[in-house]
Amino acid sequence: MRLTLDGGLDLLCNSVKIHHVDVDPKTGEDKLSMRDLLSWIKSNLIKERPEMFVKGDSVRPGVLVLINDCDWELCGSLDAVLEEKDMVVFISTLHGG
User: Fold this and answer.
1) pLDDT in tens, 24-45
2) In degrees rounded to 5, what are phi and psi of residue 65?
3) Where can the Glycyl lysine isopeptide (Gly-Lys) (interchain with K-? in acceptor proteins) cross-link be found (predicted)?
4) What are the CA-CA distances from residue 57 to residues 4, 34, 41, 60 (Å)?
C-alpha cells in the first residue's frame, strides 16, 4: 500500500512524504480497515506530535483523506476496507500564518 502525507504532515514522519507499507489486518480479521491503518500509522510512522495527525481513533479535523483519489467519507471513512494496491493520501489543510 502506498501512503502519502502532505501539507506538513510529513514533518511528523521525519520529513518523508511517501511510504510503501505492508499492514496486516488485526488478528481474527481478514480485511484491513482505515481504522486499523490509522492505528498502525500512529504506532509505526508518526515520530512526534501524534496529536497533530489523529484525534481519538480518527484523523484530526482539517486533515483531508483520499483513498485512491476519492474522499474517504464516500468510501466509508473509518470502516473503509483497504487492499494492498490502494493509495491513501493524507493532506493537512491547516496552516499557521
Assistant:
1) 998 888 999 999 999 999 999 9
2) -120, 130
3) 97
4) 19, 10, 11, 9
